[in-house]
Structure formats: structure tokens, C-alpha cells
Write a structure and sequence with these properties.
The complex is a heterodimer.
Chain A (H helix, E strand, L loop, with lengths): L31 H21 L1 H26 L8 H30 L2 H6 L5 H25 L10 H26 L5 H18 L11 H9 L3 H13 L5 H7 L4 E2 L2 E2 L2 H25 L2
Antiparallel strand pairs in A: 1-2
Helix pairs in contact in A: 1-5, 2-3, 3-5, 3-6, 3-7, 3-9, 5-6, 5-11, 6-9, 6-11, 9-11
Chain B lengths: L5 E10 L2 E11 L4 E5 L6 H8 L7 E6 L2 E2 L4 H6 L1 E4 L11 H11 L4 H14 L15 H13 L5 E5 L7 H17 L3 E6 L2 H4 L4 E6 L2 E6 L1 H8 L2 E7 L2 H12 L4 E3 L2 E6 L2 H11 L4 E7 L3 H9 L3 H24 L1
Parallel strand pairs in B: 3-8, 3-9, 6-7, 7-8
Antiparallel strand pairs in B: 1-2, 1-4, 4-5, 9-10, 11-13, 11-14, 12-13
Helix pairs in contact in B: 4-5, 8-11
């Protein structure tokens, strides 16, 4: 720091050290740049926290790996006849690609409750930026963190007999990004009204596990009992799992019969829903929940 | 005289059916240290939150640093610094990282962040701890760091909501030293709330708040002078008889405050001998005190701050009980 002084202003023999002139800074007027800065700060903070939290990385990887390898290998014994020679692990792999990002995205959203509990959110809320930037930054951060997790799952493709095709990898990554964003938006929307970590995880348990089981991540979405079929079509996760499975199965060399049985696709009243529309449903839901989250944060005091 | 740093007129805030702040008017001059004094639940925090644009007023208006708190929210935010009752630091980051994040959030010119950070950390005596994680800091250090952070962007008005709550007396004193030094080194207006009487004395002017209204506003000396009487506190074997005797023989209205018979009389020391001679009720102990802000508070509200807080607590309990019982009926 500079300690130079004007020659005339030097104190005669004052015993206390001369106080340096205060460094005056100024806060620029509110603009698009301030909003982009706020988005970047929220995004970066999520990343930094994730990298620092090794236990969380391990924990959120453990669950999908358990499902994939333990459940996949274990149930293989029962289902060999029904999978037309396709390994069960290969079958549930697309579902696992989805839930891997889902769990991580949820954890990311949870940190907003954490930040509120420990007051940091308040520091953001009183800054001269819009609340929408805070919410958008948070959702992007959650999505980015979840995707790093997703990339690890993509890397495991070889272990479950899925080829490493660049187009496939790109497609899977895109779908994961979309899903992660939507789930984070959902989590942030829920977190906006929740003040305590326990309640947040309670709500998540109530919502996420059923969503996961109903989505068809672990079974084909056709020939289901009527009640389950209805629930399956309502479950938003269905529309992420199905295009993911189609994408992966497009790159497998398996019999048409196996394809029909394992990858029947989602239908609405008998109409085969195109993968792009399914992805659109997920995107639309994400934007809707983002809008609700922004609205909630803007109106809360 | 230059434009006021804060000017508030007829400010109200209603939460559902309850008025937390009802019609508050005051002005704070630039460079002033202005204090809000009152028991918990008097509406101090709600008022500060309205001035900081965190809570929208139900009616009335407020200007802070020359900007309207409802219409020019972002401009107000650019010019104020905030230190809350509850900590708002990121305890995973170091002190320096917390300040840098704040500087980035406020868009401070990157070349000035370093020197400014050095200065504010020096001011609160935390420069040598800048690379320590906030999680390792004591309560007093965290509060000091929050003050440093609140100053990072050279605000024109610094709001301190109960800056010394929950701290030990020594740390409280050191926080006050920083606040006074701050006033000398920066052109800044300080607005603070407190429910500690002794701290309010440090302020240049004080507004006493009770039940959402300002009941008195002046500098501490003038407020105390207005009381004009000393406080005499007596412990007796029979308080009721003592109160009756005081009314009968001296024509003084006594009340029980903080568990003792309390009277306000001019010239307390001269009154004590008469009291012993004429009261007729055995006295166990007596104390005389010059007017303090506590007496000021008492003369305006008829109760001490501590009793007011206990009453507020009891009221809350009563409401809770009523709600619980009402639900069953």
C-alpha cells in the first residue's frame, strides 16, 4: 500500500502513526454487467464448494454406482430371459445417467437452504443486484456441478458394454445438462420456502425417490399396470430417462426384438412421443420452475 | 447544512394485522452516529430493514444517501453498508476471500480492491489473519470482519443492527473503539440499533423506540437532563407497605422495577436520611443513581428495558398458550 504523503502535510512529531488517507472506492451504477457478475459469482461459488467437499463428491457418486453395479448384477440372475440377451446393467445405464445428475443437482440446490441458515444468502440478497441473477446463477452452478458428476458416469460406459461414440457422448451430456438444470431449478424453487435443512431433505426424500422409481429408470415404460402407467406419464423424470435410453440404444448392436422389449418409448394415448418433444418437456418444466423460483425470491423479504 | 444522510417521514410497517412500526419520523445528518434504543420487539430491526431496502414500508417514505428506499432500491444499496445481528459470512472461505467476493459482487474497480481490503482489515485488526478460514474465527473476530466487509465498498451510511449482541464486555468495548476510529477516518454516517443502555451513550443522538413508535429523540446528555431526578431503589421486608407509606408520607408514587421498590426524586442523596427516619417500614438496602438512559427510557415508557423485554416474552407465551388452547376448543 502506498504511504507517500504530501510534503506539507507531514505531522510535526505526532507520536501516533499518521493515518493514511482512506482508499475510497465507488460502486458502479446498476447495469447488465452487475447482473452477469452476480450470476458468475453464484455459479463459481457452487463450483468451489463442490471441489472443496470431497465427501460430497464420493457420496453422490456412490448411490448411482450402487444401483448400476449391485442392482444391475444382482437382478441379472432373475431377468436374463426377459432382457433378450442384453445385460441388465446396459439396460439400466441410461436411467443411472439421469439419476446421477439428479442427486447431485438436488444437493446443490440444498446449499441454498444451508446458506440461508448460516446467513450467507442475506449478503447476496442485499447486494445491488437482482434476485433473478442470484437464482439463475445458482441453477447454472448446480447444473455445472451435476454435469461433472455425469461425465464420470459417462466414462463408465465401457464397463456396461456401451460404446464410446462421440455423438452419443455429446447427446448424453446435453441431456444431462438439461436435466441437471431442471432439477436444480426444482430444488431452488422448493428451497425458497424452506428454512431448515432437515425439512428440505424430508421434502426431497418424499419427491425424489418416488420420481426415480416411477420414471422407468429401472424398467421399460410399456406393458405397465394402468395406475403405474399413469403415474409414469406424469413423472417429469420419465421424459429425461426415455430419450436418454433411446439415445444409448441407438448406439447398441442388439436384436430388434430386444430393442422393442427394452426400449419401447413413451406413448401418450397410443401416440409415440418424439425424443425431441420429451426433451422439450423437461426444458419447459425447468424454465417454469426457474420462473417460480425467481418470483418466490423476489417477493420474499 | 448539507442534505441529511437519512430522512424518514411517517414510516409504517404492518405484518398481517400487527403494526411493527407506526409512524416514525426522523433525520440523520451526514457524519452523525445515530442510535436506535429500545427493547427487543420495539420495531428497531424492522425500521433498519426498511431503510436497507430489505422490507417494503406499508406506508410513508424514507430517503437514504439521497435515494428513495422503495423507488431507487439499487441506488440505496450501492451506498450503504450493512452489519446484521446474525452472521452472514461464508465460513468456508478465508477472511480475504469473503471481502473479495463482496468487492466483486459490488463491482469495485479491481485495482482498488487490494488497498481497500488492506485498509479495512487494518482498521479492525484482522490484517494478519486475512488468510485464515472464517470458520476458525471467534464471535468477536467475525463481527469485526463483518464490519470490515460492510465498509469494503466505501458506503456513505453504515447500518449496524445490534453490533455487539452476544459478545463479551471486552469485545464489545473493542468494537466500539473501532466504530469511533472509523468515524474519524472515513466520511461516514453510522446508524445503529442497540438495547444496551451503556452503548447508546456512545451515540451522538438517540431515538428511543417503544411499541413501534419513537418516544424521545435527542442527544444522551439532554435526554438525561430532561429526567431531572435521581433514581432511588429500596429493598424492604414489605414492599407493599413501603409503597403505601411512600404515597402517604411523601406523596411519591413508587413502582416495582426489576424486583425492587423504585422512586424518582430530585436530589436523591438528601432524600435518603428522610426516608430512613420517616418511612416506618424496615429497609434492607438502598441505592441512589444519577439519571441514566435507563431512567430516560423509564420516564417515557414507565418500565425498564429489561422489564419490557420480559413482558414481551410473557406476552408471546400467553399468545402461544391461547393458540394452543384455542385450537382444541
Amino acid at each position: 500500500m502506498s504511504t507517500t504523503e504530501a510534503p506539507g502535510a507531514a505531522p510535526a512529531a505526532a507520536p501516533p502513526a499518521p493515518r493514511p488517507a482512506p482508499v475510497r472506492v465507488s460502486v458502479p451504477k446498476h447495469s447488465i454487467a452487475s447482473e452477469l457478475r452476480a450470476i458468475r459469482i453464484m455459479w463459481k461459488r457452487d463450483l468451489v464448494r463442490f471441489v472443496n467437499d470431497r465427501i460430497r463428491i464420493a457420496a453422490s457418486l456412490a448411490q448411482p454406482l450402487l444401483f448400476l453395479f449391485v442392482m444391475g448384477s444382482g437382478l441379472q440372475q432373475l431377468s436374463r430371459a426377459g432382457t433378450h440377451g442384453v445385460n441388465l446393467k446396459t439396460f439400466i445405464y441410461p436411467g443411472i445417467l439421469c439419476i446421477a445428475v439428479m442427486f447431485t443437482a438436488m444437493f446443490s440446490a440444498a446449499s441454498i437452504v444451508w446458506d440461508r441458515e448460516f446467513g450467507f444468502l442475506r449478503e447476496m440478497m442485499v447486494a445491488p443486484v437482482n434476485r433473478s441473477s442470484i437464482v439463475i446463477g445458482k441453477c447454472l452452478g448446480g447444473a455445472t456441478v451435476a454435469c461433472t458428476q455425469g461425465v464420470i458416469m459417462i466414462a463408465l460406459a465401457g464397463l456396461v458394454h456401451v460404446p464410446y461414440d462421440p455423438l452419443l457422448i455429446l447427446g448424453v451430456f446435453g441431456l444431462q445438462l438439461l436435466l441437471a438444470f431442471t432439477i436444480t431449478a426444482f430444488g431452488v424453487m422448493v428451497a425458497a420456502r424452506i428454512k431448515q435443512m432437515q425439512s428440505f431433505f424430508g421434502v426431497m426424500q418424499m419427491v425424489v425417490m418416488p420420481m426415480f422409481f416411477i420414471s422407468g429408470a429401472l424398467f421399460p415404460a410399456s406393458g405397465l399396470p394402468r395406475w403405474l402407467e399413469i403415474l409414469n406419464r406424469i413423472d417429469p423424470l420419465t421424459y429425461a430417462v426415455d430419450p436418454m435410453r433411446r439415445l444409448v440404444f441407438n448406439h447398441l448392436t442388439i436384436s430388434p426384438a430386444a430393442r422393442r422389449a427394452l426400449d419401447p418409448g413413451v406413448t401418450w394415448w397410443g401416440w409415440h412421443v418424439p425424443a425431441l418433444l420429451e426433451a422439450g418437456v423437461v426444458a419447459l418444466l425447468g424454465l417454469l420452475m426457474l420462473a417460480i423460483a425467481i418470483w418466490e425470491f423476489s417477493t420474499s423479504e | 447544512m448539507s442534505a441529511p444522510a437519512i430522512s424518514v417521514s411517517d414510516l409504517h410497517k404492518r405484518f398481517n394485522e400487527v403494526y411493527a412500526v407506526r409512524g416514525v419520523d426522523f433525520e440523520v445528518a451526514p457524519g452523525e452516529v445515530f442510535g436506535f434504543l429500545g427493547p427487543n420487539g420495539a420495531g428497531k430491526t424492522t425500521t433498519i430493514n426498511m431503510l436497507c431496502t430489505l422490507v417494503k414500508p406499508t406506508s410513508g417514505s424514507a430517503m437514504v444517501a439521497g435515494f428513495d428506499v422503495t423507488r431507487e432500491r439499487d441506488d440505496v444499496r450501492r451506498h450503504i453498508g450493512l452489519v446484521f445481528q446474525d452472521p452472514t459470512l461464508d465460513s468456508y472461505l478465508t477472511a480475504a476471500q469473503n471481502l473479495k467476493l463482496h468487492a466483486e459482487l459490488y463491482g469495485i474497480q479491481s485495482g482498488l480492491v487490494g488497498p481497500r481490503m488492506h485498509q479495512v482489515l487494518d482498521m479492525v485488526g484482522l490484517w494478519d489473519r486475512k488468510d485464515s478460514t472464517v470458520g476458525t474465527f471467534s464471535g468477536g473476530m467475525r463481527r469485526r470482519l463483518e464490519i470490515a466487509r460492510g465498509l469494503m465498498h466505501s458506503p456513505r451510511v453504515l447500518f449496524l443492527d445490534e453490533p455487539t449482541i452476544g459478545l463479551d464486555p471486552q469485545t464489545r468495548r473493542s468494537i466500539w473503539t473501532y466504530i469511533r476510529e472509523l468515524k474519524e477516518s472515513e466520511e461516514i454516517t453510522i446508524f445503529m440499533t442497540t438495547h444496551y443502555m451503556d452503548e447508546a451513550e456512545w451515540c451522538e443522538r438517540i431515538a428511543i423506540m417503544d411499541h413501534g413508535e419513537i418516544v424521545a429523540l435527542d442527544d444522551p446528555q439532554a435526554l438525561k437532563a430532561q429526567v431531572g431526578t435521581d433514581r432511588v431503589t429500596i429493598h424492604t421486608d414489605d414492599d407493599d407497605a413501603a409503597i403505601a407509606a411512600l404515597a402517604e408520607r411523601f406523596g411519591i408514587e413508587a413502582r416495582i422495577a426489576e424486583g425492587a421498590v423504585t422512586i424518582q426524586v430530585p436530589g436523591g442523596e438528601e432524600f435518603v436520611p428522610r426516608l430512613f427516619a420517616e418511612l416506618g417500614v424496615p429497609i434492607r438496602s438502598v441505592s441512589v443513581s444519577r439519571p441514566t438512559l435507563d431512567d430516560v427510557f423509564m420516564s417515557y415508557t414507565g418500565t425498564t428495558i429489561r422489564d419490557a423485554e420480559e413482558d414481551a416474552g410473557k406476552n408471546r407465551n400467553r399468545v402461544m398458550m391461547q393458540m394452543m388452547h384455542g385450537g382444541r376448543r
